[in-house]
């Protein structure tokens, strides 16, 4: 006996076991419910999803052990009776009928292949005894569960269950458990996706064995036999493919990576994106990121419109690709200005041609609107007012605040933060933008999206709770009629969706980001190679898809109370102060504004003007209402106050507002004062009210040549509020009037002087 033991030890040392390394092999990336999103095959091309006996259905374990090895827990890896019976049957039939292998012997052959010969059988027995000596029964069983062959590249019961049945091995029915228990006996011949009838017969054999052993009742077996063998086409899962690849690269040694992704939502959104992009140019791609506001967990991650597509550059993950953010940063700018006490939600801004130290921004459609509120400027994404606010906040400070909130802008090499940043003059990532927008639902606290359950929460202050609440209210009450938005008067089960779009220069990037009660959704559409896509911009291209995705999300109502720092106050235009403390004569327009911490800032003062500055002007007048300059006196002189509008807003004022803001004329004999330094201007070349007609048989647009008289500096020319160009002094300006109808032509100088005239173009 001692000699046999010594021989066994010697053989064990000479021929050691070669067990599969636990940290090598295939990797599976799972959704939050355990559903595989993507599997990465090992070096041999094998798909294997790590599991243990505790994670597998008891029905399967019972069927496996009953059918393959009833004595698994009682014998040391070899069943002499089964071996003898198998040998006798083989001799009688002249071929191998039953090898008498135990489950442990099968594991030995699986992990260390050996020939199906008599010598091979002895090696198999030896290896089985080694397994029993070195491992516990639970470890041996787990080896089988993870390495048993199930046809094609599939190994292990978990991979087989997902591949054939589309469900985890923990949720198998009696029929499914019996099918997977017998499949490794002959995986090529019993594959249910190729040989369903053979698979059914083998399955039913297991079911009958379970009944004969008294483990499953006749009723259970009869019902199981009625269940058809239906298997999916064998394919590897490929949802959230780029996120899976990203996490696999971050955790190359992990064999099982669990994500925060909702598998059903992910699949539904991927299908929606695929269908949606069918109507867009063929090289267009898209990215969608959905984050749970409360946990910051990403539930949907679509990094490309079509993974693997060469045409769409489907290998490029646009969730984390740096792109020009267009106007998507504007909500944070206005929020910071609220925190600084520079504005209220209804502060007066001017959308007109302006010069910011040589930088002359225009609006998206080059149309200007004159006096607008902060809310209107943000909702309509007007560029000039945003640049004006950034000029007051400071570009460097704004960039630093964004970085603190998780948006680390990438500037062109060697560039410093400047005013163009607010219009997309830097690069940002979709995941950073989505994380920052969650601040609008989380009291101003922005957070990085989380992709794994154990990933630490990274949350940082971006705005105050009051500023975040006001900005969200502005974006959620946008009156724009946009495609895909809930119809007015209908019940929105997510509450009001606060949304913002953006389009980068040259139509390269179309953005839409929405904040619902429980969700933040970001959408990017464009070409990964940066090629322009004319006509594709945020409101038309990305916004409808964003609303589609929001509509697919589960109900998630969260009540966000109005912060104590926010209150409604009526203010007056043009001065900006509280209506309660502004004389009625100086309150030309009354606005109901959200204010933060009681701040009621005045309207921004003019910049770079040689004329008057906007604000409250006190002048002396005589009894006839004529203005008196400093050294001038008159009968009945007294002081009056005038609320002046910003000079650049003047062309858009009503006649009544313009009259109330105008300075009284100087009294006769009074020396000019500084209030009258603005030059007068008039337009030459056309008369007000002129009617024009295109020349007969002409195919070229009607053009007129105009001049601005009375000014030596730069003049901006607008047609129907749309900037057409500029001229210097009396230089000619040619304007095209391609459409019939009424038109308004305006000439505007930097100091606020303007002239305009109306013309009518007859139809040809």
If you had to describe this structure to a student in words, what would you say it looks like?
The protein has 764 residues and is α+β, with helices and mostly antiparallel strands. Strand 13 (509-515) and strand 14 form a beta hairpin.
How is this fold's topology laid out?
Layout: H1 2-14, E1 27-30, E2 36-40, E3 47-48, H2 58-68, H3 80-93, H4 103-111, H5 118-134, H6 137-147, E4 154-155, H7 157-165, H8 174-182, H9 196-212, H10 218-226, H11 241-250, E5 256-258, H12 263-276, E6 285-292, E7 298-302, H13 330-339, E8 348-351, E9 370-373, H14 374-379, H15 383-393, H16 395-404, H17 430-437, E10 445-447, E11 459-461, H18 465-476, E12 498-503, E13 509-515, E14 519-526, H19 538-552, E15 566-573, E16 589-596, E17 615-621, E18 627-628, E19 638-644, H20 655-661, E20 682-684, E21 690-693, E22 702-709, E23 714-719, E24 722-728, E25 733-737, E26 741-749, E27 754-762
Parallel strand pairs: 1-5, 3-4, 21-27
Antiparallel strand pairs: 1-2, 6-7, 6-14, 8-9, 10-11, 12-13, 13-14, 15-16, 17-18, 17-19, 20-22, 22-25, 23-24, 23-26, 26-27
Helix pairs in contact: 2-8, 4-5, 4-6, 8-9, 9-10, 12-19, 13-15, 13-18
Task: Identify the notable features of this structure and list them briefly.
764 residues, 5-stranded antiparallel β-sheet, 5-stranded mixed β-sheet, 20 helices, 27 strands, elongated, PBP_C, Beta-lactam/transpept-like, EC 2.4.99.28, carboxypeptidase
